[in-house]
């Protein structure tokens, strides 16, 4: 879900802006108008990977623990949206009631499309890996930074 | 939906195999174990774009009208899965109840992520545009063709 990725990015941007102030998960939930459970799941992932540090109890909260130059956008994408190919979604043709030749075509097609979709997804993720959170912050301040980079490469 | 793309690919492969024999939409529906309405929608798209020719009535059916070398897999992907970015899915933070600064961050983030996701989707689609249906048929016969091509480029 793209939303989990947005929550991660939004949380990091906010922690960076407030740094060195601590920010609570309920503050982030309120900021994004998102259910606190969703926020806490994402913060837990960011915490596990060492992007943020958290303290509990009174005056608890999260702070950013890595520089934006060191946080790769593709890593955040992979963390919040793990690559899972749902095979059932694109399989056409079952293995019963058909001729051996037709069954073979369906089976071979599933195998080829699985490869094709998997490789396309890898290619897709590479796109995000080009950028750090610092790039994202640049685009936030001056929209068009991503577009200009993409055009330069094309 | 990836399924629409699979249906298009499976239909073309089957028409090519049966050529010059005509194939009915109900035969294709049975072959893929897919609802006939889904099949007919996809065949209608393929027909509009001139990939297949159809005749109605008794002994009616579809035949392939282009060579596999001339049918681009990326064009089929764009045809069956048009690029539509669902903004609502990744927007965090509304425009009420928050400070001007927080609202600006949320608005800027929506704009930057829209650009990022749109460019990533363009990049994703480029992957499919590298291949023709002839390449797909090659991979069907000798699995690993796509993988080998991707590795060569990496």
From TrEMBL, chains A, B:
Pfam families: Rrf2. It comes from Agrilactobacillus yilanensis. PROSITE patterns: HTH_RRF2_2 (PS51197). InterPro entries: Tscrpt_reg_Rrf2, WH-like_DNA-bd_sf, WH_DNA-bd_sf. This is RrF2 family transcriptional regulator. Gene3D superfamilies: Winged helix-like DNA-binding domain superfamily/Winged helix DNA-binding domain.
